[in-house]
Amino acid sequence: MLAVVVGSALLILWIIASIRRNNKCGLKDIPNAHFSVPYSRLWLLSIRWRKLENRSRIHLHRRLGPVVRIGPRDVSVNCIDDGIRTIYSSKFDKDASFYHALFDQTGFMVTMIGNDEHRRRRRMLAHPYSNSYILNSQTLDSILSRVSRRLREGMAGWASTGTSVDVYQQAKCCMLDVASGYLFGSENATDTLQDPGFENDLTTLTKTTTKYLHLRTSLIWPMTYFSSLIGGNVLPDPVARGRWEAWLTRVITDSYRRHPTKPPSTASLFDHFYDSFKAADPDMPLNDMASFIAVECDDHLSASHIGLGILLSYTMYELSRDPDWQRALRKELLTLAKPSDKSLAHRLADLPVLDAVVTETMRTRAPCPGPFPRVVPDSGCRLVGKFDVPGGTVVSSSAWALHFNPVPFPSPEEWRPGRWLEVDGNTLAEMRKWIWTFGSGARACIGTHFSMRVMKELLVTIYTDYETFLDEGFTGNVEQEDTFSSSPLAGCVKLKFRRLT
Ligand code: HEM
Ligand SMILES: *[C@@H]1O[C@H](CO)[C@@H](O)[C@H](O)[C@H]1NC(C)=O
Ligand SMILES: *[C@@H]1O[C@H](CO)[C@@H](O)[C@H](O)[C@H]1NC(C)=O
Hints:
By secondary structure, the protein is α+β, with helices and mostly antiparallel strands. The protein is 55% helix and 7% strand. The protein binds protoporphyrin IX containing FE and 2-acetamido-2-deoxy-beta-D-glucopyranose (NAG) (2 copies). Its cofactor is heme.
């Protein structure tokens, strides 16, 4: 009896304290996602737990406007000017509690919290990912032609036997082979299009990581400590992990050994990274340097494998659902047969249909939808010209919510590449501002130009000579998972190939 009385009294005191805290808080003028959000994060954690964060954010912003309160100190932002332009500037640090829950391993660029540390690292890594470097890289030319050749061999077989092909898996293989070749040189690239064992290992590891992330970002402390119990089998497969780490260690050691004798024309990214780490800190012990480079490479490999695998396979899927756009694309690709003094990489940048098809898929099928939380600095900030948000508030945006806004994108759920081709220059510039597949600002994706060149070149390889179409027998769920990296729910996407020439 006494316990009940004391318990109720404590609860009432807590409610009163919460209400008073909220009345003093600078966030009280912002529309609430749910009546409970000023007092508790439970609502936010529950939509995350139930994998409804995407839908909820899209609908909330349609109903309540561009700034919505989703927790006691959490705000969701869904506009460009006075919105993401402000919160993704270099003044806002990443939210440590989110990014450290996200990855076990920290110390690489994505997980760095403070912007000063980050700026130094980014300066060391960014050059070989710049657009001019990517367009002129011989290392990338040679790995792309090797992977394209392998892919053509594969397609010839699939087309002649009428095989139903898991293009999600094949796309992941292509991307892993290209990224490993760019990082370590063609001689040391993986060859998973031929021998998919490695790709399977990486997919297994990614699945457990995604599951683990979901648990850790949707449970309330102290439950996070028990996440592995609650989630069942979420520990990484030790055999797959062992094989993967052994390969990475070997390839880094080999790259290091060969570094002094490599001519600049065949330099891989490893060679660049090594030189920049050495220049930044000549006395850094070799083992430290090797492990810094290894975690960055590991991250770039998995971003390419999953992120680009998702994007390429969904582009193929949408083209298979829409034969008219597939024909329009092919017609444009056939113009590449005309001789030109420009390289293929440069010519790909000038193909409007190809660009529209890729951009529209980046919009509807963003592989990493976020949200990406940032912390408001002590000086506070003002959003959409009217809400003064105090320091310490966690603000975040999600690519899906931005991309499914019906104002810049009427009928946002429809995949319609034409929307990029039939508007005037001003409207187009406005629409482009809303595309947030790779984030924006000081910490936007470093792999954007690499991603665009690789995506476009592989689409040329496929759609110049082949047609893809839906496999009627495939009934898997091709919607994306509402998690940090968003694979197809079925785990595969099946299509068929037909040779055209
Ligand atoms: C379709 C594929 C990809 C998507 C959708 C994607 C998306 C993103 C997004 C949204 C961010 C910002 C994350 C944040 O604010 O916390 C990011 C950061 C990053 N991405 Fe990607 N990415 C892709 C491919 C790649 C590739 C191929 C690389 C390889 C280099 C890469 C390397 C990075 C790195 C290093 C960062 C951190 C940048 C920094 O902190 O300065 N990504 N990516
Ligand atoms: C995100 O929400 C939109 C709008 O409700 C929906 O069309 C889309 O399928 C959702 N995606 C996921 C992965 O939940
Ligand atoms: C990397 O390439 C070199 C040179 O061809 C070769 O000797 C070495 O075994 C390769 N290492 C790996 C891990 O593929």
